[in-house]
Amino acid sequence: MSAAEILSVLFFNEMRYSNDYPRHPSSDRFILSKGHAAPGLYSAWCAAGLFDKDKLMTLRKIDSDLEGHPTPRLNFIDAATGSLGQGLSVGAGMAYVGKYIEHASYRTYCLIGDGESAEGSIWEALSFASHYKLDNLVAIFDINRLGQSEEAPLQHNMDTYRKRVEAFGFHTMVVDGHSVEEILKALSEAQSVKNKPSALICKTFKGQGSSDVADKLDFHGKALNNLSEKIFGEIKARMHGAAAQPRPKIKDDAPELVQKPIAFKTPLEYKLGASIASRVAYGDALVKLGEACDRIVVLDADTKNSTFALKFKNVFPDRFIECFIAEQNMVGVSLGCGARNRTIPFCSTFATFFTRAMDQIRMAAVSQSQLNMAGSHCGVSIGEDGPSQMALEDIAAFRAIPNLVYFYPSDAVSACRAVELAANYKYMTFIRTSRPATTVIYANDEVFEIGKAKIVKTSAEDKVLVIGAGITLDSAMKAHSSLLEKGTSVRVMDPFTIKPLDKEAVLKHAKECGGRVITVEDHYAEGGIGEAVAGVLSNADFITKHKILAVREIPRSGPSAVLLDMFGISANKVVDAVLDMVE
Fold first, then answer.
1. So what's the pLDDT on residue 226?
2. What is the pLDDT of residues 434-491, one digit of tens each?
3. DSSP-derived secondary structure for 371-411
4. Cα 529–376–134 angle (5° rounding)?
5. Strands in 273-399 per DSSP E
6. H or E stretch including 121?
7. Contact (CB, 8 A) for 309 and 320
8. Which helix (DSSP H) or strand (DSSP E) does residue 548 occupy?
9. Angle of the 278-292 helix axis to the 412-424 helix axis, nearest 10
């Protein structure tokens, strides 16, 4: 109820949109960051004529898409919200695309609660929007004083809110959030502001319009029940007729998009046996994608010279977005960039730093986003930088994300093909790239598929199936050579994607190797490749032994090769595990 007037002005005086095509490429965007206010948003769309009141009354029912918080199951929602503090980043991504990629007239509005404004991700988004002079973005803060369980920290200290937002570089206006006239005036002023985003700091009262609940605690998210009739009567008594105002018309100037499969225009040119880090190949692949499709945009968090996203920036600077050291915001901005399929975003940083954005990643999955992430510097193999930089939890975390494909390329060719496949995948992907160089083992024209493993060493005499990925596939192949000298043959598998795992291949080759399986990974044991394989093997009646080689304690700085051996995932450790298993 605190945002009723704000929503009314936006939907019936300010925003340009179409009921016939809510996701029109040129329509204004609206993000309800305070997703718990969903009933107000649904009511606005109902009043605008998108659907009837009967549908509105299905709110929160099991067979209704009008859920407790908005999701893109609804054709007027671009991003799921409700996990607070994320909407402004999404809106900033949309605004960035509108201003710098599409050069279109649509504007983006984001409604933010005062409680969620304490989230660091809001501060990151404010900084980003100001840095990029997003004058097509309007942040609207609903300052209703009350949180869920107690008063918000600043309550109605409007001047402090104003100073904070203003300090980020926003054109900031404090208004009475229940005054239609003041809101209209402020939004009109925002349209004339150039080279900086605008913010409305709206003083409101939760439960406005009811003497029983206005500005009182303990009503957050609760039905009014027996108070409903009385409150409705109070509100209705203050209503008066007004002539309907014509809504602004869409300015149809966003480019039309033709979606089609994306393929590299030129062949790969790696030499078999060459040593190339998969993170370097990631940069090569981005450039090839950029040449093939002008919808590719690349984002990075001030690690572009390490992730090799810098290669893309050097060729396509107008489609590269530096997000600086603000990973939560980078993921949210990426989601916004990809909304309505306007672009295909790839964002990158060290793999371990994505963990601080896991809530944004989780919500991107709820948003059914086509978001591609690339994490470099995984595992102990990065060497001297030490454990704070070593991604050792990422496989476990990303395996839990619905519909996400987890690529783990082991050489330059497979890394490039992972990027190419990711660009064509409908939902989210994660590409795990390595810091050390690995040997190119695949021909440039090798065909890769999501969920299909490769067998890189095989014979009829294989005693053990060894599964490795990235740097540990290198360990497995070196172990293969050493073991042959000792008279023992093993089969070596490159899974390529950890999710989905090629279950059929794992079972087939495990059976052919006498039910003996070793997995080796540069990751903690919990939730990693070994446990993924164990899940596949759990119902097989032919498995005799399965050993998981993984990092099992907090590592330390040191040379890469020394660390691989110290933490049990080197070629020598694979050899020992195989010999122990076959004795």
1. 76
2. 999 999 999 999 999 999 999 999 999 999 999 999 999 999 999 999 999 999 999 9
3. -EEEEESBSGGG-TT-GGG-B-SHHHHHHTSTT-EEE---S
4. 125
5. 275-277, 296-300, 320-322, 344-350, 372-376
6. helix 120-131
7. yes
8. strand 545-551
9. 40
Helix (H) or strand (E) holding 571: helix 571-582
HSE-up of residue 139 (Cα within 13 Å, Cβ side): 39
DSSP 98: I
Q: How many CA atoms lie within 13 A of 17 on its CB side?
A: 23
Number of other CB atoms surrounding residue 169 within 10 Å: 16
Tokens at residue 385, please? 């930088």
Q: What DSSP state is assigned to residue 325?
A: S
Listed in sequence order, the residues at least 6 apart from 213 whose beta carbon sits closer than 8 Å to its beta carbon are 1, 206, 207, 219, 224, 227, 231
CA distance 546 to 544: 7
Alpha-carbon torsion (45, 217, 184, 30), positive or negative: negative
**Could you give the percent of the chain with pLDDT greater than 90?**
91
**Both tokens assigned to 156:** 């109605």
> Which residues have a Cβ under 8 Å from the Cβ of 497 and sit 6 or more positions away?
405, 406, 407, 408, 450, 451, 452
Q: Is the pLDDT of residue 232 over 80?
A: no
Tokens of 158: 């409007």
| DSSP β-bridge partners for residue 465 | 491, 517
CB 328 within 8 A of CB 373: no
List Cα–Cα distances, 121 to 30, 161, 299, 357, in angstroms.
18, 16, 17, 9
Above 80 in pLDDT, residue 225?
no
Q: How do residues 316-348 score in pLDDT, each as one tens digit?
A: 999 999 999 999 999 999 999 999 999 999 999
| Catalytic residue list | 327
Take residue 429 and report the two structure tokens written for it: 């992907």
Q: Per the structure block, which two tokens stand in for 399?
A: 């395996």
User: With bands split at pLDDT 50, 70 and 90, how would you rate the model's confidence at 410?
Assistant: very high
Q: What phi and psi, each to the nearest 5 degrees, are found at residue 65? A: -85, 0
Q: Does the pLDDT of residue 211 top 80, yes or no?
A: no
**Do 554 and 521 meet the contact criterion of CB atoms below 8 Å apart?**
no
Contact 370, 428 (CB under 8 A): yes
Who contacts 521 (Cβ-Cβ below 8 Å, separation ≥6)?
Answer: 379, 395, 468, 469, 472, 528, 529, 530, 548, 549, 550, 551, 569
CB atoms within 10 A of CB 481: 11
The first and second tokens of residue 233, run together, are: 């009567």
In angstroms, the CA 29 to CA 112 distance is 14
* 212-216, 478-482, 514-518: range with lowest mean pLDDT: 212-216
Structure tokens at 525: 């044991």
Take residue 413 and report the two structure tokens written for it.
């060719």
- In single-letter form, the type of residue at position 499 comes to K
Amino acid at 554: I
Give buried/exposed letters for 424-447 (b at 16+ CB in 10 A, else e). Answer: ebebbbbbbbbbbbbbbbbeeeee
